[in-house]
Amino acid sequence: MNVTVLRLGHRFSRDARISTHLALTARAFGAERIVYDVEDTAVRRSVDDITASWGGDFAVEFTKSWRKYVSGFDGVSVHLTMYGLPVGEIVPKVLKDNGNVLVIVGGAKVPSDVYGLVDYNVGVGSQPHSEVAALAVFLDRLFDGGELSKEFNGKIRVIPQKRGKKVVESD
Ligand code: SAM
Q1: Is the distance from the beta carbon of residue 136 to the nearest atom of ligand 1 less than 6 Å?
Q2: What per-residue confidence (pLDDT) applies to 126?
Q3: Which end of the chain is more exposed for a tag (fewer CB within 10 A), N or C?
Q4: Separation of 130 CA from ligand 1 center, angstroms?
Q5: CB of 134 shorter than 6 A to ligand 1
Q6: Number of C-alpha atoms within 13 angstroms, CB side, residue 139?
Q7: Cα dist. 106→8, 81, 103, 118, 164 in Å?
């Protein structure tokens, strides 16, 4: 399964931190790439720096037309929204397809036509929270927890400890 995350509504200085966190969450929870609807090279630089040290092939991309990106996507598209159908109901349907998955998350405001463009509108509960939380829970359900033991083969690797920090670094 190949997962792409599309983040709508990025605002440069205001959203830089959460947009970066969203990319890091997508990467850590098994997605292959994140696509933003606004080009922000500062966000790409900070995510690329993490990937260079911590491994994997995660890509940060931009689209000038997110609607064309969604309608031309070759696979199943899912929009995470508190108004959608329960995640537990929809994930088995997405898994049946076993192909590419596009996961769309919003920011402050989501254009209303996104609801009609996707295959599924999915709620991670029906309470308002955050795109980062919604993405993490959705991906964890999709990969059934397996993404947490993914091997990234990075220059930096954490050796889990009961207490304290142990990190191995290689060239
Ligand atoms: N009122 C906004 C709206 O138009 O949906 C809420 C925006 S919320 C701060 C940012 C994003 O988090 C949403 O666009 C959605 O992708 C995600 N999100 C928040 N709560 C969610 C939930 N319960 N289930 C799924 N996604 C959620």
Answers
A1: no
A2: 98
A3: C
A4: 6
A5: yes
A6: 30
A7: 5, 8, 10, 13, 37
Amino acid at 51: T
With a 6 A CB cut-off, is 60 part of the ligand 1 pocket?
no
Q: Which residues of 37-72 are buried (b: 16+ CB within 10 A; e: fewer)?
A: bbebeebbebbeebbeebbbebbbebeeebeebbee
The one-letter amino acid code at 17 reads: R
Alpha carbon of 100 to ligand 1 centroid (Å) = 22
Ligand 1 centre from 119 Cα, in Å? 17
Global pTM value: 0.96
pLDDT interval class at 26 (50, 70, 90): very high
Tell me, in angstroms, the distance from the centre of ligand 1 to residue 156's CA: 33
